[in-house]
Amino acid sequence: IPDMPPSEEYPLGTETMGREMLSAVLVGTRYSFQIGLIAGTVGLSIGTLLGFLAGYFGGLTDTIIRGAADVGLTIPTLAVLVVIASVIKTLLTPTLMALIIAMMAWMHPTRTIRSQVLSMRERPYVEIARLSGLNDVKIIFTEILPNMLPYLASSFVGAVSSGLLAAIGLEALGLGPQTEPTLGMTIFWSNYYGALLRGMWWWWVPPILAIAWMFISLFMVSSGLDELANPRLRRAV
Known about the structure:
By secondary structure, the chain is mainly α. Helix content is 73%, strand content 0%. The protein contains nine helices and no strands. The chain has helices at residues 21-57, 59-74, 77-87, 94-103, 107-120, 124-131, 136-172, 183-192, 201-229. Helix 1 packs parallel to helix 9 (201-229), helix 2 runs antiparallel to helix 5 and helix 7 packs antiparallel against helix 9. The model has no long low-confidence stretch (mean pLDDT 88).
């Protein structure tokens, strides 16, 4: 039944296309988080690999990777995503959309992780490992990487948040998956059918609250990981 306000039968009402809003929000939250998770994972993985290569080995490798990241950071990410998403809009799925976002999400992690590795490779314990005869791969995986895990975990939460924000922004413009009820697309359709002007608050308020809940949760996780990674932020016990 379309355009039904919240009731005992439909706790969050229904929208103009007859879909129950409670189901749409629950499924949309899963799809939206899935997009952010995939985009954050792929983008940070690429950034971590390139950051370690540039920061540890330096030289020509560092010059090429740093130059590519610097050039990429000057490109307006949202404009590129809008162009790509509009070209293949009818083919978009949550996974494909996440991969498109990840293509533009590796530059910043590359820069920040490179700077961390540059600092760590000069630490005394790395020099001792090098003098002990460990090769570069073992030094990276046994000496540098374990000490960067808290920072990488915090960066991962930030990357997921950024991917989620980019996805919602594109979807709110109508450039998301057309057949999946993601939170951003739900907001787009509510605007398309004039839900605000028609007083159908149950169409656009629940997805906005779900988005706010996800970002607050991710922020709290990120704050906790930042505190773990940075001794200066740890509370006195």
